[in-house]
């Protein structure tokens, strides 16, 4: 038991990498840009379908997939699922 505790203590004494305010701002902006790129691509190329095909940049409709999309509900799931991220990323 003592050996297990010692091993856990030794492995947890690593120095954390601290992110500067500038790096944090840069990562925040990059994340926002990536989200908005994906959102705008979906709205331009796939809305109101549930999904966007990433390579062809076209909508994925149910007709060609049989019952595979039954769980998605056919109600623009991508848009509904991303609403909270959209609110955070508003311009």
UniProtKB/TrEMBL annotation:
UniProt xrefs under Pfam families: Glyco_hydro_47
GO BP annotation list: carbohydrate metabolic process; endoplasmic reticulum mannose trimming
Source superkingdom: Eukaryota
One GO cellular component, as annotated: endoplasmic reticulum quality control compartment
Protein keywords: Endoplasmic reticulum, Glycoprotein, Glycosidase, Hydrolase
Keyword Endoplasmic reticulum in annotation: yes
Broad class of where this protein is predominantly found: endoplasmic reticulum
GO terms for MF: calcium ion binding; mannosyl-oligosaccharide 1,2-alpha-mannosidase activity
InterPro entries attached to this UniProt entry: 6hp_glycosidase-like_sf, EDEM1/2/3, Glyco_hydro_47, Seven-hairpin_glycosidases
Record-listed E.C. numbers: 3.2.1.-
Compartments, record wording: Endoplasmic reticulum
Gene3D superfamilies assigned: 1.50.10.10
Family as reported in the entry's similarity comment: Belongs to the glycosyl hydrolase 47 family.
Family annotation (PANTHER family): ER DEGRADATION-ENHANCING ALPHA-MANNOSIDASE-LIKE PROTEIN 2
Name recorded for this polypeptide: alpha-1,2-Mannosidase
Species, as recorded: Arcella intermedia
